[in-house]
Structure formats: structure tokens, C-alpha cells
Amino acid sequence: MSPLTTSLRKSIAERLEETLLDCKLLLWGSDDVCDMLDDCPRIRVAFPQVLSLRDLEAILSTIVNKVVVERSRAAVEEARDISSVFVPTKAYYGALASLQEHRFVVLTGPPEMGKTAIARIIGLAKHTEGWQYVDCGTPSDFFSSLDESVPQVFIADDAFGTTEYRPELATPWGKELPRILRRLGPRRWFLWTTRPAPLHFALHHLSLSGQAEKFPMPGAIQVDASELSPLEKAQMLYRHAKAAHLGDDARTLIQQHAMHIVSHKHFTPERVRRFVSERLGDMVSDVKSGKPSREVIEDAVRLEIEEPTSRMRQSFENLSRSYQDFLLALLDVDGTLISERVASEAYYRVSLDAELPPERLAADLNGHFIRQKVGPLKPPWIASDDSNYWEWIHPSWRDIAIDFLATNKPRRQRFLSHCGIAGIGLALSVGGGSEGKQASPLLCDEGDWGALNDRAVELATSADEIVGRRLMVALHGAIKDAADKARQAYEPLTHIGRRILEARRCAWDTAQAILIPWHLKTYYNLSVLVTPLQPSPMLDRSWLHYLGRVEEGVRNDDPADMKDDLEGLLEFIDLLQANEPRFLTQQGFPSQFEELFASCITVVGKYDYGNSQPSDIEEMDREMEYLEQLQGMCQSIATIYPMLRDAATDVSAEIEQQRGRAWEKRDELEEEQKAEERAQEQ
Predict the structure, then answer these.
(1) CA distance 64 to 612
(2) For domain 43-224, which CATH number applies: 3.90.79, 1.10.10, 3.40.50, 3.40.1000?
(3) Mean pLDDT within 342-347
(4) Residue with the larger pLDDT of the pair 199 and 263
(5) What's residue 641's pLDDT?
(6) Structural contact between residues 563 and 634, judged by C-beta atoms closer than 8 angstroms
């Protein structure tokens, strides 16, 4: 499209009027078309190619609230470059359909298939309608960013990890799915991009917790981005070629052979991009030299399919040792967005000599292996004062770093001897690689096992409860996988598991620690997989702690004040009933505590949700969740003490009535909100 100046518009009109007699002429230039599109924001969602027709900043400055623009800037920057080459595919429209019906979609498929591009373009298109666009790394990012004052679209990109499947990363999402779904609506959408296995893991967790019936059928919210037709890939090729401003010879080559170039099933969107940016120039030169164009195309496609990893690997191997050390250190860091401080700590931890400062190394690697996020571009939920952040440009670079470490014994054992919990998790990971078949990628010989054993025990001896729990979770998953698949790694893994349990038990007993039920459960889960069966840590102090807190709550006669303590005691009891029933018997449980739990039921029965006066849907959702937890505690007490079942049932029935009133109040608030939205639209 071309802009129409006043003189040009007049000249065109005069010439057309000479031929088109008695016709009314309407001349639209580029500015006219863009203005029309600005007035119809939903067109940008249905036909996202229009996002590249005019300056994005101009659209946002005239349409979107400045505060919303600033809060969304980090995510928008990610989507900006994609808009000029994006092609809406069947998966794109499938994702939109799921969002419009369920407000929720999971985009699955292997790397390089465009999952991230689809999610980001939807986020960008909705942002130009005035929605806030938020990237999420964890469930807490979602909840901390909720804002009732503005419509929001949330994107969790590869929320469960990319290069190796780590089931423990899926656990928080699986637990929070019901709460997330309750908070979605016409003004709040949520998109995940991931591989299918973590989604199935999360759904399995929901099934075990009895909440699967609240979740949409997987087929309704899961969209496979890997199903691309040759026509869709050809359109991607044209878009990349157009954005590259190719010469006449290159454009002719693309026009003549587009369908042949993209016909291979492994020719992914990412390879389409590389094909244009890295191979097209050489292809034009070959054709000019007299080589048949068909042969040139076939050779280029074959090389693009077969060699991208080898070319990337060679690039990594050609780096000097210090640069390699910095990239290897990033394997010992959690998350996809890595702060400069954390990257530096990992570098000094695992590097052998650390000749160059990490800031210099990162700056030199920026733009090829990693990319930098600066200052205000960082997500708002990251509270660190660091101004610089790094991420891998593509997961393949991380895969190559892992492969390099696996084939270099001295560097590998140095890494295993000095890494942190993230490095231990990588060494013990299962289901890695593009096909999900890789396990324990860094444990190649006895020296590796010895280095891992010593480092794991060293970390387990520390007082850091989170590190200790993550170690036990990682060993539990690795041992179960080895046992299920009859792998030779089973024996050395159980040996390390036993050493870690001994170290954690010693650390707890020495510190006379109050044991967190969640961490103690992890200990018991791992203990049943190793021989001999490991004894329980000392429980007396923890028992007196949880019991004393509940007794104090009963004396205060405040159900809101007692709720968390009672929940903790019941969870502790449930854990001991399954693993250490002798301890409970020794404490006189349950017979000596019937009166205490009868008092607990009485206190719970005094709760009245109306006292909290919830004023919006978010507060109502929390209130109903609270009431549901109180009911669950009454049921747990009735299971322990059948003689208290009638009292527990009566209190539970009263709470159910309160939940009914809460639902009515929530419906009223929702209707008021919808009415306000309709009024704003009008």
C-alpha cells in the first residue's frame, strides 16, 4: 500500500473520472486503511498479518493505556519481531477457539514448530485491544500479576522445561490448575506452550486429587502446533523472504520452488527462517554459476535438515575455554531467564580458572548463544535489583552444551563436583532429548557417579530445606525411572539416595528442626525405594509444635486463626499414620486427643464468611476455597474419630450453606462486572 498525498489523490481522481462516468470515487491510501483497521481491533486477532502493516508503537500509543503498555513492555518486545513474519495456521485458529470457549489453551508440539510464536502473537494482538500482556514462569507469577482493573492475557512459555523433562516442575502447575481456571473469564485468558508429557502429568495429578472433573476435556484445550501443511510452510517462507528484502534473483528462486523447499516433513518454521537468512545467498550464487536450480534446492534442503545441529555444535566447540565455561555454568541455573548475579555465581562455582569476568563473557556471547534482557524489560514479578538478565536464544544451544559436557570427562567431573542443585537435577534428569528417551545425561562412568555422590551429600548436609527437598525429589524420580526400565543406574542411584537420606536425617536431628510435612513426605517417599529401609528422623519436637499450636488456637476460640495450624496437624498425622504409626501409638493417639478434636470442630463451626465481607470475585474465590478447606478438615476428623461424625457432619452442612450463599454473592458480583463491561463496550 502507498500513502496518498493530496495532489496524488486529486490526479488519480481526475483520470478515473474521465473513464468512470457517473461513479462516485473512494480512494484509500495506506494511512486510510490503517486508520480503518485501528477502528476494528478484533481484525488484528483474526488476521494478525495486519500487525506488520504499520508501526506498532503508533498503534499502542493511540489505543492502549500508557500504564498497560509499560507493564506489558517486556512481553511485547518478545513478540515484535515475530509479527513481520507470522502466518496464522490451523493451530493458531484452534488456539483462539479454545480461548474463546474455555479462556485457556495448551499449545503442544516439539521444538521449532511455532508454539511460542502463536502464543506471543495472540498476546500481542490482544494487547493492541487494550489487554495487559503478561509472561509467567511459575504459578505465583500468574497470581501476583492479577489485576481486576484491566483485561489480561497470560502466557507460560515452556512452563515445564525444554531440554529435559523434569516432573517436579509440573507439580506446582498441576496443583494450581483449579485455582487458575476459576480466575479465568471473558477478560482473562491463559496460554501454555509445552510438550504433551508434562500436561499429562498435571492432569494425572488432578485426577489423584479428585479435581479432574473441573478441568475441560484435554482434547478441547490442547492444540498440537506440529501439524503444519506444506501451504502454511510455504506462506511462512514467503513472509520471511519478504521481510528479508531479497533481490530479484532470490525472489525468483523462492517463487519457482517454494512448495518443493517446504515439502519435507521435518522442515520446521525455525528452519524456514534459517533457510532464508543463512542459505539463500549461496543458493543464488550456485544457480548463477550454472548449477540446475532443482539440484541446488534439493541440496540446500537436505543440508538444512541434516546439518543445523552439527553446525551449531561446531560453533560451540570453536569457543575458547572461558566462553565455554560460562555457557556450561548456565546449565547449573534454574529457569529460562537468568539474572546476571546468579549467572556469575554459577560461573565462579563450576569454572576451573575463571580468567575473564562473567560480564565480559556474557556481553561477547550476546546475540548468538544467549541474549540479554535489560532493566525495564525484565518481568515485573522478578524482585531482584539486578538490571541484566540472560536467556538461551534457542533450546538447541542448551542441548549442545549438555552434549559437550557429556563427552568431555575432565569438564564433566569438574561440573559434577562443584555444581548446585540445578546441576544435580540435570545430571539425574529423565525423559530428556527431543524424543524424551535421554536419562542421566552426565553420568557416564564411575568417576561421574563418585563426583555426583560426594556433591549431593555435601548439599544435603546443608541447612537449606528447599535444596534438601529438591535433592530427594530428583533422586526419587531417577530411581523410579531406573527401576521401571531396568537400567544399570539403579544400584548407584539407590546408593546416593541412601546417603542423602542419612545426611538429611542427621541435619534435622542435629538442629532439632520442626519438620515441614511436605519435606518429610518427600523423605518417606524416597526411603521406601532404598535398602535397607531408612529410619525416621526424630519426630517428638515437631509433634509437640503442631499439637501446641492447635491447642492455642482452641483456647483463642478463633476459627480463622486456628485454620492453618489445624490443617498442619492433620497433614502431619496423616503422614505419620502412613509411615510411622508406632510413634502415634506411643503418643496415645487417637484415644487421648478426642476431646481436643471435638473442640476443634466446635471452633470451626463458629466461622462466618460474612465477617470478612469479600467485595470482589477474587476475594469470593478465596473465601469459597477457604470454606472448602474447613469442610475437608471436618471430614478428616470424622475419619479419625467416628464418634464425632455427627458433630462434624452438622458443621460441614452449615459450612455448605455458607458456600451456597457465597456462590450467590459471587454470581451477583459477576453479573455486575459483566454489566460494567457491556456499558464500557457501548
Answers:
(1) 35
(2) 3.40.50
(3) 93
(4) 263
(5) 93
(6) no
